[in-house]
Amino acid sequence: MTSIEATTTVAQAAIDDSQATPRVLRDRMLARVEERLFALLAQERAYWTEQNPDALELVDCVGTMVASGGKRLRPAFCIAAYLAAGGDPASQVAVDTAAALELMHTSALLHDDVLDESELRRNEPTAHVRHATLHRERDWHGDARHYGQSVAMLAGNLAIVYAERLLATCPPAARSVWGELSTELMVGQFLDVRAAARFQPDIPLARWIALFKSGRYTVYRPLSVGAMLAGGSPELLVPFEEYGLALGEAFQLRDDLLDAFGDTDVTGKPARLDFKQHKMTLLMSFALQDEPEVKALVGDDLPHTDPDELHALLIKTGIKDRVEAVIEERLKVANDAVSAALPDAWASELHAMARAAAYRVK
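Above: the chain's sequence. Below: its structure in token form.
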């Protein structure tokens, strides 16, 4: 390509960007995020093929999760905020940072499946189950279950290492938000485990865990990272926070409902896993605190409560509808926050993203 042709191509791209809808601009950048993820993993495979091919099983453990069909919500919110705040669609730093968010999510999923002893993720055996099976098939020494869990935890750690590598050129303001995101995710995970062990209905704590374990790192912090990458417009940070926190809570509450009432064939995860793991979700906090019938059925032994009986009782007592009402209210708060702060086109795009996240629709 000649220099004249290259200049013409860049100019044409700029015209295309200026005429594109918010959804098209966002999706173009997300396509580059996807390319960046798989280029990084391909480079790692090539490197370890030369260094020590045995290491490929760990690299591929990360790659399999990345390629398994996630919704890419965190990169999408990051890129949307970046563009809505006036960021350059050609930015490589924004693409790398959004890809790092997906790798952080990959890490969280690998670790979550071990902590929850889940056997399915996206309708496939989880990493720790898959590697325990390999251990048994190879007739190796030691405990197969422990081996599988060890591989999954190490793969989760490796995904964080890859994320950090992608953040090499991330500016300090956005890097600071990344640090907050990482800390909140870990603390939220711990409090979730602690609340399950303690097993006392606590609605404020359940809402707090829903925010920090999932909500903040799914919506609010990715939005903040994107805004910071674009220059951190002060007038957008507050509405992004209001939108992100409200939608993040709605997103986690939808997860609670899908676990309790969803279909494994649709969700790709075991049904009613929160019951088995003693999770003190907002749904269960409502039920145990306010519904004597539920309290009498469950007592202090949720894992051994008949899941079908509990499922029917939660519907009968209206708990499902109550959580749905909270989701709808949170969605309205989120939409109102950006309606007054963004141009109509970007506000409409964030409204559509909010509904998709809260109701798991496209």
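Residues 10 and 16 are 10 Å apart (CA to CA).
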